[in-house]
Design a protein that fits this description.
- Helix content is 50%, strand content 15%.
- A 3-stranded antiparallel β-sheet has the order 2-3-5, with no helix packed on it. It has a 3-stranded antiparallel β-sheet with strand order 4-7-6.
- α5 packs across α7 and α10 crosses α12.
- The N terminus is likely disordered.
């Protein structure tokens, strides 16, 4: 026994097995428990704990995780982009916001979204994009566990800077009102085909679960259901491009065209409904709607999102995205600079080729003019031959 005690003191860290050291066994032995008994009990406990951890890890490997994306972007679930959840109106629109009570909103594709709450517009979407990206920075790649909300703490000034809003009393009121609208909503998705806004149990949820707005801080909590929708499928939004566009239909159209890979045509009537616009009742109103859409297309072409787009003879909206539409802002700027440099080189080469052709044409013309003024003399043989024939 004395030798055992001496060895324990001399080398307390000696490993008895893959899980325990002699020191750990001695430290955790119960009164009256031999070293062998303590070791056997502790081994069983460790193995049981290891099994539980393995099972937990296996479970975590199967659950959805908070999506991640590069800085300069944010994202929205496809269902919010491909529906009339956010109308194309902006905060300066004079018409009063409508109140929806279990209203079935227009959705592109199969599925159904029932919405209760005040009408959400493009300024509300802008705030949600900013909050979603803050959540990504804080919780990106975390498991999405049922009933677990995600929170982020910031302040109004930081949000204003992120969104490009002026820091004044009007913006504070605008922020508070938008938070209230996003909180006082209920969204019920009937089918998972409604573009990744699915809750298989048919439960409604608010976009913002709750928030604490204090003078120097703002804490926002959002439900896991919203981020499960993101994990199922989301539309990436280039925030620099989004914020460069006029507030209103152009921003609505920006997220719409970025959410569709197939770039299929859509009828003008369907597009108007999905954008939350009132249906035109006469030809004058329809002409105004067409003009609004064409202006938005022009803005998206200017911003490098679309190559082209328009309304065809059958009143269907068509468009073609650029390869850079979903790239990072720095990448877009670099690609645009390379395209402009290439275009400049091609123009220079064309100008040089035109100059050479002009110089050749001018030289040929001068040569022909000189030949007309000084025709070559006829050889003597040919002259005699002609004279003999005339005689």
């Amino acid at each position: 026994m004395g030798n055992t005690s001496k060895n324990t003191t001399a080398n307390p860290g000696k490993v008895l097995n893959d899980f325990l050291t002699r020191h750990e066994v001695d430290q955790n032995a119960r009164p009256g428990e031999s070293r062998e008994e303590a070791e056997k009990r502790l081994m069983a406990e460790r193995q049981k704990q290891s099994v539980k951890q393995g099972e937990k890890q296996e479970w975590l490997d199967t659950v959805d995780r908070m999506p991640v994306w590069k800085n300069g972007f944010s994202a929205l679930p496809h269902g919010l982009v491909r529906s009339a959840v956010f109308s194309s109106a902006n905060h300066t629109t004079t018409s009063q916001r409508r109140y929806h009570l279990n209203t079935v909103l227009s959705v592109i594709g199969p599925g159904e979204i029932r919405y209760t709450g005040q009408e959400l517009r493009q300024d509300d979407k802008h705030l949600l994009l900013a909050l979603t990206d803050l959540m990504r920075r804080e919780h990106g790649n975390k498991p999405l566990v049922d009933s677990e909300a995600f929170s982020v703490t910031t302040n109004a000034s930081k949000l204003f800077k992120v969104m490009g809003w002026l820091r004044n009393a009007r913006s504070y009121k605008r922020l508070r009102d938008s938070l209230s609208r996003l909180n006082a909503t209920e969204m019920l998705v009937v089918s998972n085909a409604a573009a990744a806004m699915a809750d298989q149990k048919g439960r409604g949820f608010s976009i913002i679960q709750d928030y604490d707005f204090e003078p120097r801080s703002l804490t926002v909590r959002m439900p896991h259901t919203y981020f499960k929708a993101l994990a199922t499928g989301f539309t990436l939004v280039n925030m620099a491009v989004f914020e460069s566009l006029p507030v209103g239909f152009a921003r609505w159209l920006h997220t719409y065209v970025c959410s569709h890979k197939d770039q299929k045509k859509i009828s003008l009537t369907a597009l108007i409904n999905h954008a939350g616009l009132s249906a035109p009742t006469n030809s004058t109103e329809l002409a105004k709607r067409r003009q609004t859409i064409r202006q938005a297309i022009t803005e998206l072409v200017r911003a490098g999102v679309l190559r082209n787009g328009g309304i065809d003879k059958t009143d269907r909206f068509f468009y073609q995205r650029t390869p850079d539409a979903l790239k990072a802002p720095a990448t877009i700027a670099k690609a645009r600079a390379e395209r402009e440099a290439q275009e400049a080189r091609e123009l220079q080469e064309q100008a040089e080729a035109d100059k050479k052709r002009f110089e050749q044409v001018e030289a040929d013309w001068r040569a022909a003019e000189e030949a007309a003024e000084h025709p070559p003399e006829m050889p003597v043989k040919d002259a005699d031959h002609i004279e003999r024939r005339t005689e």
